[in-house]
Amino acid sequence: MRLSEFKERYKETMKRNYMIGGNVWHAKSLCYCRKRMLEEGYDDVADKDPVMIGQLVHIGVDEITGYESEVYVVKVKDYVIKGTPDLFKDGDLVEIKFTVYPPKEPREHDVLQLRIYMWMLGLERGYLWYLSPFGSKEFEIEGALTDEEVIDLIENPKIPAWDWECKYCSIYDCGARRL
Fold this sequence. Notes:
The chain is α/β, with parallel strands linked by helices. The protein contains six helices and seven strands, in the order αβαααββββαββα. It has helices at 3-14, 34-39, 42-46, 49-65, 108-121, 147-155; strands at residues 24-26, 72-76, 79-83, 87-89, 92-98, 125-131, 137-142. The chain has a four-stranded mixed beta sheet with strand order 4-5-6-7. It has a three-stranded mixed beta sheet with strand order 1-3-2, with helices on one face.
């Protein structure tokens, strides 16, 4: 098998059709620039090697733990929020991130995603795992989001959500850069 064939198989295997916008939102889409989430195509995201490696790490974690991913659905106000936590087993919620180097502190967007999953599952504690070739770290995160905070993320999006987002975006010249 050639690498290009593997990547095509990977993209087809991992493709998820999360409809976002309007009244239906995927938890992860609430953690990033709304413009990018609505306009960046699946192929733009899936073609990035770090995304592929991260997905392969998730497959390995599922295999080792025996966990089968599940899509959770929560309604708040007129909205439907869907989310697929990386690992929710024996009452422990874990969001897993593959990274080149583990951060000294948890990254804000990762904490936000975990806190949304905590809200969805009615938990007050969750864990962030950063897996890296140069070491791994675990952070314990407390405090689920509230209904009001989730509604605010939907109704008052920041474009971009984080100052660093534009330099990693496939639609970089969209005009959303913060000055």
